[in-house]
Amino acid sequence: MTIRFRSVTLFLAVILLFxxxxxxxxxxxxxxxxxxxxxxxxxxxxxxxxxxxxxxxxTVENLTFTSDxxxxxxxxxxxxxxxxxxxxxxxxxxxxPGTQRSRPAEIDADTGILTGRWDASGADAVPPWxxxxxxxxxxxxxxxxxxxxxxYVEYADDTRDWVRSESDDIIVFSLDLPSDINDLxxxxxxxxxxxxxxAWGDLLPYKPRAIxxxxxxxxxxxxxxxADPRVIGLTASDWGGTVQVVTNSGNLYHLAYGTVLxxxxxxxxxxxxxxxxxxxxxxxxxxxxxxxxxxxYEGRVRTMAANGDLPVLLNGSGPGVSGRNARxxxxxxxxxxxxxxxxxxxEGHRELIELLDTGIGRVEAIEIVxxxxxxxxxxxxxxxxxxxxxxxxxxPTPTIFFFPTVTPYGQ
Length: 411
What we know:
The structure is a single chain. The protein has 8 helices and 18 strands. It has helices at about 180-200, 215-220, 250-270, 280-285, 295-305, 325-355, 360-370, 375-385, and strands at about 5, 30, 35, 50-55, 55-65, 70-80, 85-95, 100-105, 105, 115-120, 130-140, 145, 150-155, 160-165, 170-175, 210-215, 235, 240-245. It folds into 2 domains: about 20-155, Immunoglobulins (Immunoglobulin-like, Sandwich); about 160-385, Neutral Protease, domain 2 (Orthogonal Bundle). Helix 3 (about 250-270) packs across helix 4. By secondary structure, the protein is of the alpha+beta class. The radius of gyration is 24 Å and the shape is elongated. Helix content is about 30%, strand content about 25%.
């Protein structure tokens, strides 16, 4: 396997600031140019440390991480206590802030080596190149507890020729795609940085990842639950990134300036607020951060308005974002956020997000931001689009149940 690095600033510069646990703080290490950054993968290699905890001396040696992509990964360590043998050991890791996974570890009575393993299975599977911050949590026979310092590694795919780029805003991995995609994604994130900051009040507390496949066979290898030909992308705050497969690399510009920015918008939503998944609000908001549009979203909605086809937005669930007319919810939701920006600036977006994060309902939050009733907001939004100011009356419809289908998040 060969990884070709296309570093924008410095490979492994400031990266994921993970909150591993209340008892263990992540300490950034200095890079060769004396800038702060995440511990490099080498930091998880053989190390030795002797740490005193009260009257107990702890010794840590041979910290090892092994990536067995796509099957999973494993950890090893030798940790000893001056008070006696270990009685319990657990390996704990995180891929992004606010998330945590763990597995019990085996303790070899003869060698004292600790072994922990995660096997990819079902919805637990993660794509290659996610970051892994891990630490060991152990207790000796006398009940003394100890946790190691966090180590940073990556779940590497060592079987293919990936291209990696890293900037202040994003880490990009691409496979079997023109190398321009890395530069485009880096540039897109840099261009949109201040809009993210203004709209959300701050940047993400970690550096997101875009893992881009140009090879469907390679894509299918890591997928277990979502091995569905209709799925072309997934985004998860659990591992802090978006993974996309591109079977036709013709429009790389939209992949970078549209899809990646959209999916990063979803990561902001997960970090900063509470939004109902699968709603026009969540998809319209993510669409609001796209620079390159597949077509004229606002123009399409204005045509709907001119034809009298504009649905009710705030009263009820609003336009859908799935099924045959899925794009309607994306486009209509996008126009609402454009209207909000035009009238209340990106500060209005930030205030709305902060209110939603407190648990206030969607309509009430919008009313607080605008100082208008929900009916007046809907009327003004409709007039701006060229529709009648009169909001159509909703009529009850029978409840229809469908079996769930797998659809790509954020697509």
